[in-house]
Amino acid sequence: MTTFAQLRKTALSSPEVVEGVVDGAKVFAVGGREFARLDPDAHVRLRLPAAEAEDMASQHATAERAGDVVGLPVKDINGQALNYWVRRAWLACAPPELSARASAADGAGAGEVGDLPKAIGRPATRALASAGITTLDQVARLSDAELNGLHGVGPKAVRILREALESR
């Protein structure tokens, strides 16, 4: 069973997401556009391009579609599917330059972005690139807490980044 905590974690893992409350619903937006919400009745609602909205609605018996918004009880979608659809909704609503940067980062491999060390691994490389961080100079301006706040960057990656900065 999927929960609000997973929806929140997934939504906030993408860059520049703002969390808020509108009429009792938990709302997630990027670039001023709402892409996900959890209504007080525990229905998740995602804003998707028409073809993807149709695809999502066809995959879930309890889904309801209203234009580009698909809603269903959060308990009726498994975590992996929720992660996928929330990311698709974020990409659809993000400003074009942010969406393009994030899409490019999704394919980034460890050691393939700027001067970031390969040893941090692919998830950390993708998380940093998605946030627009491609150099150790940019990393140096961030605190450990800010780095750890990026979904995909863990304590080991932060340690490796700090060691790379010290050895320069």
Explain how this protein is built.
- This is Helix-hairpin-helix domain-containing protein.
- With 168 residues, this protein is an alpha+beta fold.
- The protein has two domains: 4-101, Aspartate Aminotransferase, domain 1 (Alpha-Beta Complex), CATH 3.90.1150; 107-167, DNA polymerase, domain 1, CATH 1.10.150.
- Helix content is 46%, strand content 18%.
- The protein is built from eight helices and six strands; from the N terminus they run αββββαββαααααα.
- The chain has helices spanning 4-12, 50-59, 79-93, 96-106, 122-130, 136-140, 144-148, 155-167; strands spanning 17-22, 25-30, 33-38, 43-47, 64-66, 69-73.
- A hairpin with a 4-residue loop joins strand 3 (33-38) and strand 4 (43-47).
- The protein is elongated.
List the helices and strands and how they pair.
Layout: H1 4-12, E1 17-22, E2 25-30, E3 33-38, E4 43-47, H2 50-59, E5 64-66, E6 69-73, H3 79-93, H4 96-106, H5 122-130, H6 136-140, H7 144-148, H8 155-167
Antiparallel strand pairs: 1-2, 2-3, 3-4, 4-6, 5-6
Helicity, as a percent range: 40-55%
Terminal CA distance: 47 Å
What's the mean pLDDT score? Answer: 90
The chain-level structural class is alpha+beta
Organism: Nonomuraea harbinensis
Protein name: Helix-hairpin-helix domain-containing protein
